[in-house]
Fold each of these.
Amino acid sequence: MDFSQQFPIVFASLNTGFLQTLRLFAITLIGAIPLGLLLAVAEMSSFRPLRMLIKTIVWIIRGSPLMIQLLIIFYFPGLVLKNPIWGSGETGRFAAASVAFVINYACYFCEIFRGGIQGIPVGQEEAGLVLGMKPAQIFFRVKLLQVVKAIIPPMSNEIITLIKDTSLARIIALQEIIWAGQSFLKGSGGISGAIWPLFFTGIYYLAATGILTIVFAKLEKKLSYFR
Amino acid sequence: MKKIVALLLCLVLAAASALALADDKADVIAKGKLIVGITDFEPMDYRDTDGSWVGFDADLARKFGEYLGVEVEFQEIDWDNKVLELDSLTIDCVWNGMTLTDEVLSAMECSKPYMNNAQVVVMFADKIGGYSTVESLSGLVFAVEAGSAGEKVATELGLEVNAVQNQASALMEVAAGTSDAAIIDALMAAAMVGEGTGYENLTYALPLNDEQYGVGFRKGSNLVDELNAFLDACTADGSLLELAKLYSVQGALIGE
């Protein structure tokens, strides 16, 4: 089979794989941003045990490889509790991967959010209070937009890393794009021993990160009306 | 603190009660499906052009499902994690041209062997002429799949190895020139190198050992007896041979 015959088969398979990659990417963002915010608020709480608890969780999650977390989350329920909660098939693997990614990224986002919120000069809060504003009003009307502006560069870093990190989910046999590309090495869809599909997956990642880079640049420009 | 201790105790109790040894056959029949762990591995399990799983092992597994009266679900796994997948109940058996090595036999409940295999050397066709004996291979670097039968043979022969993720990567190493040769399963080599394949300028020779394929279940599983009886029946009525001919592997079938 020559390249022109191989291409449509490989292209279809890589598209299916990349759709799975994008799904995992989207679910992670949807889950990890609110969870990260919640963790950030909890980490700034005046209740010391809660602060210590969150700091410990963040340390454990940020301090261990995501690959290990994926293996533990997917295999632990069946292996130790004899209750494979994730079920069979691709959906179960996707659910387990989503949980692992949401928890992992929420911990990184938590620290970025905390940095953004704590980076605002305390004088603004004091001025708001003097003017008779309530703490919630100060947060939403004065601080929030400044926080958003401050966290865009570190967030764009994490989000670009995230799209490439999704490939780690292949360790629990989630069939994302790298898995799809690799399958042609062994033989799949009548093609065997094709090396180029694996390298071709790089184009997909470049396209995705290119779009993200443009979006973040636009966003930063939009927020540049105050300094 | 008391609450935390109580909660932990509950968890331990729940885990312990769930640990009672299960009747594998009854479990599979109760859930109505047998989950078969496979990798994309021509000619045993591979995707047809329409995306469905075919191959000698895939077809045989479907027949075994019919025999048990359950559906068969194929689950692609990472080969390194096959025991982990079995023990965590995410698959019910490994049925994928699995060589019955000592490691496999000690970690799984294995069926009787149903097919012969050998580990062979894969090299560029224009270079292999210079290596006609096992002794002549010393000095070369061999790509092998980590944890595979090929790695074991190479180590026993005292050859220099370069362990990679799977047999397909081992072939890529040879094609890319990053290893001198690879040691992989004869059945896979027959399907994947030489004329009409993606590796036209590679070829294979020099069988290094004799080995056999079997199916692996969870340690202690009673499904093994069912499978052995099923294999006997398929040998007796000739359907195993018929299936082997369909995928041109009849020469490797045990007892033929």
Amino acid sequence: MTAAAAKSTAHSIVEASPRSRAVAGSLVILYAVITLLPMVWIVATAFKSQSDAIAYPPKVLFEPTLEGYVNLFTVRTRQTADFIAKLPPPSTWYDVIVRKHDMVIAGPSKVVPRFVNSLIIGFGSTFLAVFLGTLAAYAFSRFRIPLADDLLFFILSTRMMPPVAVAIPIYLMYRQLNLTDTRLGMILLYTAVNVSLAVWLLKGFIDEIPREYEEAALVDGYTRLQALRKVVLPQAVTGIAATAIFCLIFSWNEYAFAVLLTSGEAQTMPPFIPFIIGEGGQDWPAVAAATTLFVVPIVLFTVLLRKHLLRGITFGAVRK
Amino acid sequence: MSTIIHPDHAAMTGAGEVALSQPMKHVRGLSDRTIAWLFVAPTIALLLAINIFPLVWMIRLSFTNLNLSMSYLPLRFIGLDNFTDILGDEDVWFRLQTTARFVLWSVALEMVIGFGLALLIKRQFRGHSFWTTIILLPMMLSPAVVGNFWTLLLQPQIGPFNHFISLLTGVPASSFSMTGEVVLAPWTIVLVDTWMWTPYVMLICLAGLRSIPDYIYEAAEVDRASAWRQFWSITLPMTVPFLMLAVLFRAIENFKMFDMVNLLTSGGPGSTTELVSITLKRAAFEKWRTGYSSALAIILFVTVFGAANIYVKALNKVKQR
């Protein structure tokens, strides 16, 4: 019997039976739902009022409000009822929310600058790491480089150090160079961390592009650089995009370096979020709102990256 | 079909490939040799500046008494004193034990649950791709953000976790605190880490399972091997390299663990969840004992590096079988 004929029968002997599939499916879905609950809780907390968020016992059903989001973006001051009564009527929906609690908006919070820092440092380091990584990966893939294995291993090993350990000398060095708490300093540091991933991943992607294309271009009179730009790069675009997203996710999520080396100017979101304080401790609806906004891009990226995820998280050691 | 490429192995195949054939050397523009160096140099330079130079500096500092909170003191070279201090300090050994227990339990749980999930997902039930993506989400999040929001979930009064447990077991919700009790806290960091990283293991295991060609199972069916026997004689042995890779990656990552635990328990209560990275952070950035913490950092680095190398050798042996 041919393979095609075998497939056309009811089911191949190695395929799972419908019943075992259903059991497997329900178990996986059960796990997925349980694993999703913590995240759902946080997204829901962002829509709770302060008192609902810290209610005992915790509330599953509640009246949704945008208080958390308003608190996240503003700094407020408490005023007397008399003072508030004398003010002109609230002109915006967020003024209405704030005044319900005898508060007046005093100005914007620091969340926007922190978000901007995350974006600048994330995109800056990603761009640099992917740029340097593409060049190096191309060279490692196509040319005979002396000690190539040692160099590649060296590039990878820089990633094995505990971040806190790396931060000690970096802190001292940046102090001398006036790079502490600067975006440039963080971009350089994240680039150095990401470039090892970029080289390893991109080398894998470029290895998969047949050399014949370039060779044909070189025969046609292209220079090596032209061949790289017009033949190799267009072929590697998916790989480069996947690598870029991995680098971006790392910089976006990074906490250890950010908390140890930044304090204000260049602080990114991860060290900022836990310290969103309201009256009497953490302002949980605002923290949850920040977490939600912070995590949404990551969820989108995960969906986009699905096919390359395995490669990214194993430094290209496992390919599909 | 999935393939597994070992770092060393990959590097060797890369180097082993022959460079472009002879006639190509005479193309116009820069020579290939120049281009190769131009392309590799910036990356190497950056890593030398941001990783190696500071590392060398740190090695030098590890032999000194430098303390940044008392930087008026003259810098003295004290030989191996920092190293002997650390290795003779019972507290440091205790932190290393705490770390080892955390690594052991979290990796073990992640391996068991992750492998189980992979076995189930491999059955290709309806919608498996959608649910797999959902399962993957926790590992993509920022560990710091995860540590932070779990403090809310685990809060005895206002958090849902205790109430959920109370619903299942009948134990009053506010009678225990997952992050505040000496007995529970070490398990709490294992729990949250397992929640976060099981999908990682699952993904690698799934690749391993998918790398086994169907015909092997078909042959086993023909020979009437039981499902149990197929699992022990085919599935497990053929996925071992993948499992070991997952263990390697998870163990290294968790040995370095700082962010999630720092925000979840910050080492407490007392020092029951003080992993060695947190000790290092306290020595370096709270007590400012730079010389001492440099020495500790070097000890940690050597440990990770040494363990990883031994493990990689074992991995190669398994693959060659």
Amino acid sequence: MKLLTGNDLGSGAVTWWTGNGWSIHVEDAADVGEHGEATLHAEEGARRVNAPYIIDALPTEDGPRPAHIKDRIRALGPTVRTDLTLKPADPAAGDWII
Amino acid sequence: MYKYDHYDQAMVDARVAEFRDQINRRIAGEMTEDQFKPLRLMNGLYLQLHAYMLRVAIPYGTLDSRQMRMLAHIARTYDRDYGHFTTRQNIQYNWIKLEDCADILEELATVEMHAIQTSGNCIRNISSDPYAGAAADEVTDPRPWAELLRQWSTFHSEFSYLPRKFKIAVIASPEDRAAMRLHDIGLELIRQDGALGARVFVGGGMGRTPMIAPEINPFVKAGDLLSYLEACLRVYNRYGRRDNIYKARIKILIHEIGADAYRRQVAAEFAHVKTFGIDPPLAELERINAFFAPPAYDAPDVEPDRTDPNFAVWLDQNVKPHKQTGYAIVNISLKPLGGIPGDATSAQIDVMADLAEKYSFDELRVTHAQNIVLPYVAKSDLYAVWHALRDAALADANLDLISDIIACPGLDYCSLANARSIPVAQKIATRFADMDRQRDLGELKLKISGCINACGHHHAGHIGILGVDKKGVENYQLTFGGSGAEDVSIGKIIGPGFDEDGVVDAVEKATEVYKELRQGNERFLDTYRRVGLEPFKQAIYG
Amino acid sequence: MVEFRYRTDEVTEQPSVTLDAFLDQSNATAVRLEPDDDARALIPFLDRLTLIEVAFPKFRDGRGYSAARILREAKYQGELRAQGDVLVDQIAFMRRCGFDSFAPESSLNPDAVARALAHYEYAYQRAADAVEPSWKLRHG
């Protein structure tokens, strides 16, 4: 599957295209298939996202898992500061990245 | 320390207003990201993996307690309660909002700080010797010269769209504590026939193609320096490569045309620009010099009581001789066991500020090894300082040892990185947790970069580690034999790369080979230089 | 199209020729410099020129700033125009380097340009304009 991701222009937060908006949770990301480019340009033009790009991901039971470690780190947070990730209470969350 | 006058303050205030206007225009859609990017970079603002990252300049690594507390305040108020000190004597905040950025810069401006030209294809923060003003071996304090260069390079109308970034370091000692010859321009201040001037090295750097800067001029006198640098930069701005970002640094230009040709072009350009009154009168350098007058030393010449063994170890490792009797230079390690190299919490930053105010004539320094220095501590206060540092988890006695690792933020934070750096640093430090073992290994500079841009200075590591992306998996290459000091050299890749645990094992094996083969007081680097790569390769690859 | 001009003389009507063409025949009084042209090639002819247009095909390519400085250092008095990918936030530095007219490819907001030009009261360096560097103001 393919996901559309970028950062929020004002806050800089990592965001994922959900099909009708943006979420900071990769679990909410929608498969954009072959139509990601058009959404990317429209959303970037409207400044609802900054520096967007399209990535490969695998569908899993827990939601989409980005194919590259870089995007998994973006999705969760730094592996060396689990307290600053989106799942600070889950000590095993880092395993999802590696 | 330098204090802003009306002109300096007006300049920084104007920059805040200008950037606020630029941010507003970006948010309002009057600028594309492509157009905004160089502007935000020239204000130190990156878009990184998790958020915007703001890099605040600490000019030539010097700051006072008020400024240090402001850094803590920014971390606490606008970020996540910590900051990251970098190899170029800056501090980075990792979780900044674009919307807050102008307010942050406005707060910084109230304490004479800024983020001007901490990124972008312009002249970056001028770096210098963290022991400046305190080192016994210095010819003069290099910081007034660095301040002169800071002003000259700030908002330089001709050199703000250079082919690539441009880094300048100034030192004034035979011992190089600033990796001077690994900068685009390295200046070593020397005295010749009684007059101060600069040996000028141009075209060094790390990155994809590491190079040691050749000497371009053996002596440029003080009154000619800015014209000479203007000439150096103009030749680069006109003829540096712009067709390939990887070949755009000045080191490539000088490598391609040769140091002699570059030297001749600069000489011709200098003869021309020297006629336009670019150099300020020497009175300006003297005005700046006055701010850097030695503090009012008054401590008795006493040696600290070494009864406490932990204190004694810290004294031996982290405290360096001072040019003034009765005083010492204190290094605060930001490399706690298993911690993140260069990171400090807001509370720790405040503690260091307090200690500077109470014990170091209100001054701190940031080192290119990502540590902090209290440059003027009375020997009679060392025990009190150590106690306070220990209470703040800042008393690790590992300066220049294998766990005093330089590491870039790597893939945990950086959008350019190919591999994580910090976990490797943590694993190595943990493997060598036994301090006796570290001390037995002696000075061993280990440096880790998470990509070829070499922000972690791996080329200059006695042991260097470069993280690469091998088909989507993190992989680490080892280099041996680099140095960023006066015995500058570029490390060599020893062979195929390793996974994360593999590289830690390989480092350990290398230290065992060193222990077996070392003679006398040889450091790891000396032994490596004497015996060559082969015995290390044998042990690591079998 | 020239959007901003900071001169009072008449706009030259003659179209500018390339540097090669100028050096070949050289009746022209207006020349266009590309980023890799050597501005110093024009120095023997500056008296005759009324317009030098410096092309900025990409705003990130800063060679034109040095070209402008070199021409003003050689006492060129005519119009020095920045043409191409010229952005609001570059105009102040371009003015300091000696440009006195601007023909941006994409039209610029005049208010934004006016604000950009007004931000800085002082400068740290001597450049091609009349602004005295702060060290000069400090020491007279």
Amino acid sequence: MPSNTYYNEILTEHNLHPEHKHALPGANTALRGVNPSCGDDITLQLKVEDGVIEDGAFVGDGCAISQASADMMLDLIIGKPKEEALRLADIFIRMIKGEASEEEIDELEEAGALQDISHMPSRVKCAVLGWHTVEEIFKKK
Amino acid sequence: MEQQFEGVRGADTLDIASVREDFPFFAAQDTAYLDNSATSLCPECVIRTVSEHYLREKASPFRGLYPLSVQITEAYEAARETVRGFINAPEAAEVIFTRNASESLNLIAYSLGSHILRPGDEVLVGITEHHSNMLPWRMAAERTGAKVRYLLCEPDGTYREETLREALNGRTKILAITHCSNVFGRVNDLRRFAELCHANGTLIVADGAQSVPHMPVDVQELGVDFLVFSGHKMLTPMGIGVLWGRRALLEEMPPFLTGGEMIDAVTTDEIWWAPLPQKFEAGTVNTGGALALAEAIRYLGRVGFDRIQKREADLTRMLVEGILDTPHVRLIGSQDPAEHHGIAAFTVEGVHPHDISAIMSDGGVCIRAGHHCAQPLHQHLGIPSSSRASVMFYNTEEEIGRFLTVLRSIRGAMGYAE
């Protein structure tokens, strides 16, 4: 039988019951992120006040990894200053490349459950989609 | 010319154990390979043909005046004759070797397109088409001022005769359509399509990539004007394909690629193109590929095409019935296994195809996930993407069983209660 090390309960739970997958009426910034080859397509919406992410959500479609990862990311970054969100996004992306330390991965909380994706080159783009999108949002500003 | 392709007579069941021994892949890989519509595996005899050719007798065909070059030229032309017999083309000069079906279709769209399309003309393209039989026509339309229109299929993949009749008009110069859809697995009645097209003064270009490897295809019986297919989907390495077209059309058409070997003479002011087939085979040709394709055709003949068809029909039935039996799984296309020709595309409720493919991969099964290079078809069907399992005669019931076992576990693996 399949041994899906990366389809763990944390991932499937965030995919089946994403807390942050909905439109965000008070959003003041939004950006679409797409993986053309897989069809993952999300729009990240944030409400940013005085450099702090007051609230966030996403809408779209894609594989379980892309959707769960975006949901976990929002769990982590809501309520944090944008610099902190960018620092965590950097840790996450390095984790997926296999370059983050265990202490750093601990900071990612549940999103650390995706670290096995680093052994799945074909799924890396799915995992980092939301995190790249948040980087793009703040780099544009 | 004698027809070189002939199925072996005798026992009507294929000896699967001995067939599997012909494919070293099975000894090397512990995986159920069910992505045959993307590319097939290679039997040892085909690879041996290629390696012997390049190791022991490599020389430039056509050009050299020494015996080895002449011998390679003869072997290359004999391969062309083998292909001619395989598809029952009227003459070998109508068989053009290309890189694959995509290149063949690009050649036709570019060359025939520039030859006959004028502003306001229409090219009718099946909505079931692989991008390789769609994008070249869109490019040709852009270059010539013609327009691409789509022939729409029913949800089960059938094309109604009425739809085609209504779509054809005085401006329709070309119909580009697949013989067998790489998503539905359904075979189109090209003979009837060709009659309707020709009665309307429309040429018909057929994509045989998914049909030629799996069923006897006779271009004269089909009545189409062009047929293309790829070697790599019928047991050869990548890089060899075929374009067959009617002589009268090929002669009128301008060359696609220009360069060496495809001219009779060149001066600073004038060019005399070489006769068929060399006019369309610029540059040093893929001799190894052509010899591989001829050997693949002989191999299919030795196994016996009638037995191959029977076995693939049995495997398809098991695959399709197993999919239909699995809760929360929807088969794309007909519910009748006989309409699937080795191909079963499906969706699993609530699970993205890339997750399906990943779980299959963990379970030791290779299948395709995505839009199968047929994005407009998926849009027409209202589904973003799908998964696809496809069989070939060398697959086993055990492999399909493994696929079905994993299929039944997918929803559970993704956290669904049932």
